[in-house]
Structure formats: C-alpha cells, structure tokens
Amino acid sequence: MTLLNTILPEQRRGKLKALLEDGKTVRVLEAHNGLSGIIANTVEVTGDSGGKTVVRQFDAIWESSLTDSASKGHPDIEVITFDSRFHTINEILMVTDKPMIVDGDTGGDANTFEYTVSKLERAGVSAVIIEDKVFPKRNSLEAGVQQNLQEPEVFAQKIRRGKSIQKSSEFMIIARIESLIAGKPMEDALDRATQYLKAGVDGIMIHSKSKNPDEILEFAKKYKIILKNLKLDKPLVCVPTTYNLITEYELSAAGFSIVIYANHLLRSAYQSMTETAKTILRDQRSLEADPLCTPVREIFKTVGFLDVKEKDQQDEQTTNTPVIIPAAGEDPVFKKILNGKPKAMLDIGGKTLLDHQIQTLSNANLADITLIAGYGKDSLHAEGIQILENPDYKKGSMLNSLMVAKEKMANGFIMLYSDILMEDHILSKLTECKEDIVLVADNSTQYHQPEEGNIHDYIITKNHYKPKRREIRFISENMVTKIGNKINPETATHEFIGLARLSKTGAEQFLETYNDVLKNFTGPFQESEDISTLTFTDLIQEMIDRGFAVHYMEIHKGWLEIHNAEHIALAQKSFSA
Ligand code: SPV
Ligand code: MG
Q: Closest ligand 1 atom to the C-alpha of 129?
C-alpha cells in the first residue's frame, strides 16, 4: 500500500461536484481493488489538444458491481454483500485521491439504501448510482436476460429517502435508467428521467447495450428539453462499453458530462493473466511468460514498497547505529604523560580524548558506543558507553580489537579510530550516506607533506579525482580503488581519517571477507607482512579487490588526529576557540 495518495473523506467527497461545476467532462475508469485503483488514479499520457501538449488522466474512479463481483469470481447479480463491496471501496479509497462513483446496483429497498448512502458519504465517496431495477438485479450487458424494472414511483421514493439522509451537500445520488436495456421505448426512459429529477436526484445515467450510440444520443437530446422545462441543470452519465466507437469529445458535445469506462481494467487483466498462465503451461517454465509480466520492482514501486525500503534504510542509518572505537593499543609517544593510562584518557583542555569523542558522537545522535580496551584498561572510565576487552591487544592490529565487537556489527556500524577528533557536521553527514561502505576521506592531504614518523592511511579514488573548483559529482562516482599506508603520498587523492560507516549489508560483506581471509590465507597479505597483523585498511583493500563497492565521503579538513604533543596543543586551541 502506498501512503502517497491518501486523502481524508472530507477532502475527496466534494471533488466530483467541483469538476462538474467547472464544466469538465468527467472521464471515469473502473477499479476493482487497491492496485487497479492506483492505476486508475495515477496513470497518465501526454496527448495533443488543439495543437497543445496536455497531460491526460482519468478524473474519477468507478467502483463497478460487475468487476467487483467478477474479481471475487461471482456473477453480477447483487450476490456480493454490501459489506464485501464496502471493503473493496475502502481498499481503493485508501490508496487513491480522486473522486469515486460507486455502482450501488438497485440500492435495495429504501431503508437499505439510506444506510448505503450514509456509509458511502461518510467514507468520502462522491456519488452513488442506483439503477431502477427490482432487487436482485441482473447485469445489463448480456442479451436475453430477464430484466425487471422497478415502478418509477417506488424508485423515485427511494431517491427521496436517500437524499433526505445525506449530511453534506457534496454527496450525489444519480439515477440510472434501464428502460433501453429492458427493451422499453424511449418514452419510458424519458418519463422516468422526469420523475427522478422531480424527486431530487443529482444526475441521470442512461444505459444502453446497443452497438451504436443512436439511442443514447436521442435520449441526450430530449433530456436537454426535460431539464429546460424543469429549469434544472443536472449532469447526464453514459457507459460506452458496447457503443465504443464514439469519442469522449462527441459524447460531451451531445450533453454527457460523465463518461464511465466501466470494466476495462478487469477485462484486460483477465486476458493478460490467462495468456501468462497458458504460456507457462505450454513451455513448462516461466521464462517465456516473463515479457508478459510487469517487473516485480515496478509493482514494488507502485504499492510503496520502495518507499518503505528507503525509510527503513534511513532509520537504520540515523537511529542508534552502534559505534565501535578500537582503543586497546599502547601509545609509545604519550607513555610518560599517560603514566599507565590508555590513550583515550589523554587530557585535552580538561576533558579526556574519549569524552571529546563521546560528545561529538552524541551530537550526531549516536549513543550506542562500544570501546575496545586493552592497555591500561583498569584506568579507563567514561559515562554511558560499553567497554569490551581485547586481552591479546599486544598481538595483531587494531582490526583484531575491532573484531572483539563483532556482535555489535550485525545491523551495520560506525568505526572510529580512538585518536581522532572532528567537527560535528562530519558525523551528521556520514549518517545520511546511503552506500553500504563509506570511508570518510579528507582531500586536503594533497596540500601538505606527511608528518615524520606518522602513519597515514591514504586513498586513491576512482578516476584519480583531484578536486577542482565548483563541481558536482554523483555519489556513485565516489568510489575508492586503493587504500593503505604504503601508497605514495604523491599519488594519493585523499587520506582516510579513521572513520567509516558500514550498513547491514556492508557489515555482512566485511565480516564475510574477514572470515574468508583468515580461513584461507597465511603469510603476507595486502600491505601486511603476515595475516596475523592484518589491518582494517588491508581488509577494505581486499574487499575492493573482490569487487565490493567501497565509497568515500569527502571532507576538506575539519578533523585532527592526536599523535603528538603538538596535536594536543592544536586540539586545545580549537576547543578553546
Ligand atoms: C457495472 O460496471 O457494474 C455496471 C455497468 O453496472 S454494466 O456492467 O454495463 O451494467
Ligand atoms: Mg453494475
């Protein structure tokens, strides 16, 4: 179900009257369930109108007794209960925003009809058309069927009762004259029209199963005279199923203001379904039937499944993505200042490095934080985060620590190096990225020399992109082709800042590659001398080599890594500013 076209009853009900008052010839298409309702509501073509290009759509939806019954596998003889019809009506109303005209069959007796009017009006239906036959009626299109007409006085009284019960002035009751269907003369039809108009009906439908339109055109001519005599202006409705050569334009010129295509979606669906079923039987597989079928994805799009997918992805990205900070290693540079404490406890302007990180994460609504501790773990403290331990932190790389939090990765995660600080906007932007694997990459690396003794994770992006002024690039082009600390800084386009986001799918691919590499390889691997010291960037490079799409989110400065005393001073300066 798509929520795009939903509309409240009071917003819809008056739409039909408004179209008629605007002098429009209302083009109506049948629907028999939610999906056909969406088609009737939204399908459009561009056409020509007096040399001008116009977008053509249907104006309203016909909820047909014939097709509602047939879609339930039943004949059109008022055997489908009103409750069942009302279920279909609501199903269509739920996914459309155009006015609906309901085929009310005979309307039952006057009491039943009052309830029908009340329920349809409340639901937001714009009009009901009832036919002047005796309950239970027979469909009008089949030749040789006994058609029993209701006494016009009895039918006129049913109209009065219906009109007296409706609450709004917007709801319309239209009388359908079946004289021509029942083989009665034109006079009978005209007589009935006069009586129903006098009873207060809002419009007349003249029905015919003739191959040519002569009789309805004659009726239309004489109907104008009746209206003139009664000083009324009430719309005339036709259903050109059998006399289908005549155009809307001609019908409009003859005085018809509502034209109903009453059964075409169901009939075309039936033909197409039968053809598909036979094709599968013939070929004993479905390959040949495929060209007869709409792609699944188009159905998904039509019924709103793709919207749901997108919303789920957005939710997944913005709510509670776990953040994993591998912080187990010992930092030789700060050994003295830290005095046995882990680097995360480094004081920067009166606050620990970790608290600075937690603050930035919480500013981006990221509250599920897991830190992997190792060296100096007992002196590690921070509020509201989970701490896991990597007892083997002396062996292996930061990737081993990251993998301690494997359990947190199942629905996607963010990985943050423990020694970087950044401006808030970087994380907010990262949570909005739609790709499955996104590395945050700084493009300012090209403007400065690598610092002595520091290890930098460099990136080379697809197309060897070097920033130019004012340029729009599409996200899908933001692909990483190479990553690692052995890349020549001269050829690198970006530096990986130690912040990455992996979606559920991205995390699955990441773990799958990791497990496979550990199982099947020994010795040197990517940039590492041995598989046991495999790094995060090695694994990412391996994923790229295996064909997984690794994207980058480009930033320009706005972050710091704390590798020496100078960096601390710089960070302090930034925070005090
Ligand atoms: C319907 O669509 O159910 C109608 C029109 O009532 S007809 O089938 O032509 O009678
Ligand atoms: Mg009908």
A: 6
